[in-house]
UniProtKB/TrEMBL annotation:
Keywords: Transferase. Residues 312-415 form the Zona occludens toxin N-terminal domain. PANTHER family: HELICASE MJ1565-RELATED (PTHR42957:SF1). It comes from the Bacteria. Residues 78-302 form the Helicase HerA central domain. It comes from Desulfofervidus auxilii. This is Nucleotidyltransferase. GO terms for molecular function: transferase activity. InterPro entries: HerA-like, HerA_central, P-loop_NTPase, Zot_N. The keyword Transferase applies. The keyword Ribonucleoprotein does not apply. Pfam families: DUF87, Zot.
Amino acid sequence: MVKPIPKLIFRIEPAYSFQQELKAPLFRENNILVGMIGCGLELEAIFLGKIAEYGKNLNIWLDCEGAHAIYVIGKRRSGKTYTLGVIAEGLVSNKWLKQGDQKQAILVLDTMNVFITSSYSVKEICKERSKEFEEFKKWSLEQEKLNIVFFYPKGSPSSPEGVSQEIAIRPADLDDKDWAALFNVDIYKDPIGQLISELYEKVALEGYKDLNGKYIQANQNYSLIDLLNCLDNCPEIQRSYQSDTIRAVKSRFKAIKRLPIFSEEGIDIKKIFSCGQLSILLLRDIDQNLRALLVGILIKKIMELRSISDRFERLCRVHRERFEHFKEIGDEKKANEAYQKYSEYKQKAQEGLPRGWIIIDEAHNYMPSRGITPSAEPLRKYVNEGRNLGLSIVVATQNPSALDPSIRRNADILIVHSISMRDDIFTAEGMVNTFIPDLFEFGRVKISTRVFEQLVRSLPIGYAVISNDMINRVLVAKIRPRITIHGGIEY
């Protein structure tokens, strides 16, 4: 159902001019849709901002019917984290900011805890004559109570405000590659990595004989104590590896055992990735390697459970259509059989997870272009395969050249805030998937050389160049104000 959209008739200043006319999908007069994929009967989109070009009074909406990989780039203080907040708010809004009734799960991986203020509205915090409040009114925004839950790693501080829940890592959720990545070793080249791999196989997959010849069965729900016992009591390991290597692995696992974030309880992913809920995972107060490990485990669990739901959702659609077809032609027996299948698969789909969005700030910490990190491979798989499961991702970085190339290849929507480093500008330009005009005007200046570079250098805070292959050229946008308090304070 399309909700009434206010008439936002005001001039965006400063504004840009391009000679080439903009052609983009329209869903209503003066409202363009970025990222349109499907042709569903109902519009599913969130309000992103307005065109910042002379002579155009166009609202910009971001499609959320399809699954997307969105790349947000910008230097410090350019507005990229603010844009992540705008997208997150829109996805859980029940007001006009979100068109359509479809509910999805949203998980924000908050590296620097800047989303910790999201439980408060601009309208209830900012003074009436403040700039924030005036912008709130100008854009016809409405106060609303969003369904936000904060999650924090066990052993780190909880959010002082709002609903918060503790999460921990269960050792048995890690395989040999996870442990090796946590310790920054290679399971093929490094003796420590080779020992970790064999240790995992014996404890979790194969079992082993101890020093007394007793067979210890494999246990997929293993604990850290099981790993340490195997190191001490497996003669095959003691024969195959030098004592220094065994000692090094043992000291690492003993150090891990002392960390409060590791627990036998682990993560209930259905609480974190829940339909219609904005989950914010506060990561600032733990070590970067542990952040990456936690993120990697979450991503793997989301992919695993979402694939269950997707499998049965696809079959549900088939059997619903069969039911309607047989009912229409009067074949009651086949219609009943089809409906029973539909009901059965609909129930089984509930065992997995809903469609959803992962939003990552400072994404180069989790998907670096080089080096070993526990989250890199799970995120690479999510980027490459997630859209087939109805999973979207939004990543933000101030250092695009340091981010894994897979996201650069797979991004279908690019949002570029101001950039000043030439290498980063070159990387961003290489990702643009539509036409870059030959010239533009900004103020009284006409630019016709190094157009993209000059364009992104000139962007004021909160402005962005947007690229999508369903639009005939890049466009310049003013991102809308937040409805919740932005926590990105600069010192």
